[in-house]
């Protein structure tokens, strides 16, 4: 199995993030606090508790270069935490929201971060040295519902968002005085702040986790209809593919390489998708599956699964492909967060961590998966 470590930190975990050297982890135990644990003599010990929010913390991101933590909460506030003399000191962020903040992500250059909210807006935040606070510029009147996920393009300008209005959008976030005009960034560096580059109407249900590939050439996002969407050549004439599956919907995705994606969600088991030499994406397998069922029991297992769905029994069991992925399942509840474990500059991710509503943080390793090595 690809699992190399399982840690039970709390009864429930909303989100988590790692320190730059991966010696510390910050997570929200489904309340208004952020707990920071450090690995000391092969044992995780709590060393800090960040207490500033009034409601549940919905997003955490830990910057790789500057060692700063940004948190957002349903209380409509956000804070940037700096480590000063062994204490984490919060800096106020002016979000100007009238609904909950739902997600947050540092930009690749870490000079700004994006916050998605239930107010149908996206806040692009940057630091003002004179006032010692973080201010925001808002992308308004573009979304028709809550913004559930944000993802930065490697060029530090383009931002992809998903929303519960079923659409995925790409915006320019160029801010004069913060970003530099870079010819390498392409036409996106000439677009004005908040200009919509692309709107994808591939899904007619809630949209969730969105990510860019390491090269920035492919965009992937998931819908609540058990579909995952891949978009190449993001621009006026994008090339889109959709992959459906008969399992429970996904909540978040991660590009392991340009040709492989890992999706996590309500099935409690990471799903692997890969592109062949022609660029056609398809579902490969569950990362923790065990093939146990034979072809003779395939039809019966389909009937049993349908019967269980009808009467509200557990979904986890033998699926229509004769694969019992429940025995390889480590998480016992919905996986809500997936975070890469990689060094700065690496384009291929061989390790990542997941957290879920069961309170576990699981570390996965892709290196020894022989059938997946061709996609790395």
Provide structural commentary.
With 376 residues, the chain is mainly β. It has one helix spanning 298-310, and strands at 3-8, 15-18, 24-28, 33-40, 43-51, 57-62, 69-73, 78-84, 87-93, 101-106, 112-117, 122-128, 133-139, 147-152, 158-163, 168-172, 196-200, 207-212, 218-223, 227-232, 239-244, 250-257, 260-265, 271-275, 281-286, 335-341, 351-356, 360-365. The strands form 7 sheets. It has a 4-stranded antiparallel beta sheet, with no helix packed on it. It has a 4-stranded antiparallel beta sheet with strand order 2-3-4-5, with no helix packed on it. A hairpin with a 2-residue loop joins strand 4 (33-40) and strand 5. It is globular, with a radius of gyration of 20 Å. Mean pLDDT is 87; it is low at 290-325.
**Major sheet details:** 4 strands, antiparallel
Number of helices, counting only DSSP H or I runs of 4 residues or more: 1
Structural class: mainly beta
The Rg value, from CA coordinates, equals 20 Å
Which spans have pLDDT < 50 for at least 5 consecutive residues? 290-325
What's the overall average pLDDT, rounded?
Answer: 87
Specify the overall morphology: globular
Order of secondary-structure elements: EEEEEEEEEEEEEEEEEEEEEEEEEHEEE
The end-to-end span amounts to 18 Å
Instruction: Tell me the number of strands.
Output: 28
């Amino acid at each position: 199995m690809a699992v190399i470590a399982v840690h039970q930190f709390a009864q429930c975990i909303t989100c988590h993030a790692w320190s730059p050297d991966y010696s510390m982890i910050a997570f929200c135990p489904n309340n208004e606090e952020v707990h920071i644990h450090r690995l000391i003599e092969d044992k995780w010990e709590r060393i800090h508790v960040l207490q500033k929010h009034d409601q549940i913390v919905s997003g955490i991101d830990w910057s790789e270069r500057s060692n700063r933590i940004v948190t957002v909460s349903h209380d409509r506030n956000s804070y940037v935490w700096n480590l000063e003399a062994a204490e984490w000191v919060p800096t106020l962020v002016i979000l100007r929201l009238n609904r909950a903040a739902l997600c947050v992500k540092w930009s690749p250059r870490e000079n700004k971060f994006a916050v998605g909210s239930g107010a149908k807006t996206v806040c692009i935040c940057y630091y003002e040295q004179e006032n010692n606070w973080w201010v925001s510029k808002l992308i308004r009147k573009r979304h028709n519902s809550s913004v559930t996920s944000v993802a930065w393009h490697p060029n530090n300008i383009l931002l992809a968002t998903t929303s519960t209005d079923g659409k995925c959008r790409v915006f320019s976030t160029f801010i004069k005085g913060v970003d530099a005009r870079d010819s390498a960034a392409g036409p996106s560096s000439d677009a004005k702040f908040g200009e919509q580059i692309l709107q994808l109407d591939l899904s007619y249900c809630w949209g969730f986790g969105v990510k860019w590939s390491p090269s920035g050439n492919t965009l992937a996002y998931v819908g609540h209809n058990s579909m995952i969407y891949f978009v190449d050549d993001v621009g006026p004439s994008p090339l889109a593919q959709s992959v459906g599956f008969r399992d429970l919907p996904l909540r978040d995705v991660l590009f392991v390489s340009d040709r492989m994606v890992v999706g996590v969600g309500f099935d409690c088991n990471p799903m692997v998708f890969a592109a062949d030499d022609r660029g056609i994406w398809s579902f490969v397998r569950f990362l923790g599956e065990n093939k146990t069922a034979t072809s003779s029991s395939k039809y019966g297992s389909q009937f049993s699964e349908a019967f269980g769905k009808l009467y509200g029994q557990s979904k986890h069991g033998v699926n229509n492909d004769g694969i019992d992925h429940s025995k390889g399942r480590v998480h016992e509840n919905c996986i809500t967060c997936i975070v890469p474990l990689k060094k700065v500059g690496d384009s291929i991710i061989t390790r990542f961590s997941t957290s879920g509503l069961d309170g576990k943080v699981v570390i996965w390793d892709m290196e020894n998966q022989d059938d997946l090595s061709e996609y790395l």
